[in-house]
Structures are given as structure tokens and as C-alpha cells.
Amino acid sequence: MASISAAPTASLLDELQTVLVHGTIARRVETLRRVTDLFLNNTVDYSDEQIAIFDDVFNCLIRHIETSAKALLARRLAPVAKAPPQIIHALAFDDLIEVAAPVLSLSERLGDDALVENARSKSQAHLLAISTRKTLSGAVTDILVERGNDEVVKSTVNNPGAQFSEQGFTRLIARAEGDDDIATCVGMRPSIPRHHYLKLIAKASAAVRERLAAANPHRTDEVSAVVSEVARRARSAPAAISQETTIAHGLVRSLYEDGRLDENEVASFAEAGKFDETNAAIACLANVSVAAAEKMMIESQTEGVLILAKVGGLSWSTVKTIINMRKNLAKIEVTDIDVAEQTYERLRPSTAQQVLRFHRMQQAAAPGAG
Questions:
Q1: Which of 243, 246, 330, 334 would bridge 237 by S-S if both were Cys, CB 3.0 to 4.6 A apart?
Q2: Number of domains in the chain
Q3: What is residue 78's predicted lDDT score, i.e. its pLDDT?
């Protein structure tokens, strides 16, 4: 093959054609090595146009080439920030993990869209490679937690550069139930939101609680308190209320008593479709029983939600999120959201308090109240 200039031109493709058509596999591999050397020796100086030409060259050369050569190319290009994007994408989606793994774990050329697509469609080995990246967004970890096996989940959770969405943490807590290793990994994450940590503790085995207490001695009292509270509520809860609901109520009450329950928490619960947590949070902020709040929350009209939210000092944006949650969970339609907003903005806190007192009186007078 003729020598390749440091500034490749389109004529290079013509030269390569001879190698591809008439050359042996050994010659193709040698050509690939030389082109890779050329690219890596001058990568900082190449323009986007020149990188695009290299992209075409690499894509031509890897066709019908042996796996070991493709794997070597992947290992050499993976750490390069300006690596040709099309060849990186092709290597990442190769079915053979020895080819895909280096770029999946290292390449900065792979954005969230490509990583999510890969994680949705490829093997567990591909997911495991993705889980080791230096940083992972919530969009990517959502898929890893949803599709990944236990090894993938633990690798993702143990990655300090991984971020998790509210939905992701919810799935992690569910995956952790009955699996002490995952539960321990999740509980060890410094960034785990407190309400998820408390829910994890409430469901965890004694062995996991001991491990987390040893790792986080400053949270020992907090853990003991929430475990005792959840146990007490579970013992006194009516049989009709599930253990899951009882745990949710107990954890929200713990947040409230610790001064950590605010509007952002309420909005997060509602956005995640967590009715029990949202209902318990509003009950705390409005200073009513969970049962009274639930009765007002599930009535067909939105008046009950508006009253509770106004007493609790919530903004309209959070109220709208709660209304949407009711619509999604209970199929309760709101005929005119704009009218509801106008009503809420006009509603005075003092009026809402009076209506709420009336609701309390009705509940106290109802048969079996108390």
C-alpha cells in the first residue's frame, strides 16, 4: 500500500479498495494497523472532515476481518476522545463482547441515546461493560437496573459515577428485597435519598441492617427509630392496609418528624406515582390523619386535593402533579384544569382550614371513627 499522508484525503479510499479486493486477510490486518497508527499519532490535529475520512477507512477495513483484529482496534480507539464516531458505534454494537466491551466501557463518543439503545437490545455482557463507565446518567442506569441481571445491577450501584432517577431508586429498592448483596450495595451509596434509604432499611434483613449500621454509625439511631416505627405501625395497622402501605406511611411520618418533609418531596412522590407516600405527606403537612386525607384525595372532585394542598402550603405546580397522579392511578378525569388552577389561586388558607375542620368533624361523627 502506498504511504498514507498525515492529512488523509478521499483518494485513500481508492488505495484501500485494492487491498480489500485483492489483499489477503493478513494484508488487511496490516493495513488496519498502519491506518490506526497514523490516526493515533496525529489525532489532536485532525479536523472533523479528516476524522470523517478515517471513519470511512476504518469501516471499509473491518468488513470480513477477523475478530482479534477488530478487538484490537476497539481497545486502541476506545480511550481516544476524538475517535471516529461511526466506527465506535459499529464496534459498540458488535455482538462479540470482546469487540464491544472496550468502547462501551471507555469511549466518550457514545452518548446517552446510543448507550440506552445498546442496553435495551444487547447481551448482559454488554450491559455489564456499560455499567463500568466513568459516569452514567439516570437515563442509562434506568435501563441497566430494569434489564440487567444481579451482576449488572451490583456493578451499576457500586459505580461512584452513576446517577439514579427517582424511578431508578424505586426499582433498586424492589430489586434489593430478598437480595442481601444488592440491598447492601444500595444502602452504601452516599447519594441515596433518605426516603429510599428508610424504605430499604424497613424491608432489609437483620444482616443487612447490621452491615449498614457498621458502615454508617452516624445513622444507627435513625435506622433503629424507623425500624421500630415501621414495626409498631405494622402491628397496629388494620388488616385491610397492606404492609407496603403501612411502611410507606411510617417512612413519610419519619421524614416529617425529622424536619425533612417539604414540597419537593411531595412533588417527587407524586411524579413517581406513589399514592401512599403522597397521601401520607399531604396528611402530615395539613395536620390531618392519613385516613382523612385519603378520603379527600380519592373523591371524584378535585376539591379535597385543593383544600389539603392549600392548608399544606403547596404551590400550584405541585398540586397539578398530584391531580395528574390521581388521573393516572384512579382514572379520575379533571374536566377543566384551568378552572381548578383559578379556584386554587383564589382559595384562602383560612377558608381551606375551615373546610378542613368540617371534614374532621364529619369523620369524628362517622360510625366507627377513631
A1: 246
A2: 2
A3: 96
- Nearest CA to 94 among 76, 117, 69, 70? 70
Q: What integer pLDDT is reported at residue 93 of this predicted model? A: 97
In this structure, is residue 245 part of a structural domain? no
pLDDT at 16: 64
Set of cell numbers at residue 52:
470523517
79-133 confidence digits (pLDDT tens): 999 999 999 999 999 999 999 999 999 999 999 999 999 999 999 999 999 999 9
Identify whether the C-beta of residue 87 lies closer than 8 Å to the C-beta of residue 112.
no
What is the per-residue pLDDT for 237? 43
**Range(s) of the domain holding residue 333:** 262-370
Q: Of 338, 260, 270, 348, which Cα lies nearest the Cα of 311?
A: 348
Any domain includes 246: no
Residue 226 and residue 247 in contact, taking contact as beta carbons nearer than 8 Å:
no
The neighbouring-strand residues paired with 136 are 162
- Residue found by looking up cell 439511631 in the block: 221
Q: Which of 102, 132, 165 is the last residue of a domain?
A: 102
For residue 206, being part of any structural domain is answered with no
Number of residues written out for the chain: 370
Note every long-range contact of 225-229, with CB atoms under 8 Å and residues 24 or more positions apart, other chains counting: 225/254, 226/198, 226/201, 226/202, 226/250, 226/251, 226/254, 227/201, 227/202, 229/253, 229/254
Tell me, what's the pLDDT at 370? 42
Per DSSP, the three-state class of 63 is coil
Residue 70 backbone zone (phi > 0: left; psi -120 to 50: alpha; other: beta)? alpha
d(CA 182, CA 164): 15
- The answer to pTM > 0.85 is no
Instruction: Give pLDDT < 70 ranges for the chain.
Output: 1-24, 218-244, 299-300, 328-335, 362-370
Pick the last residue of a domain from 102, 122, 147: 102
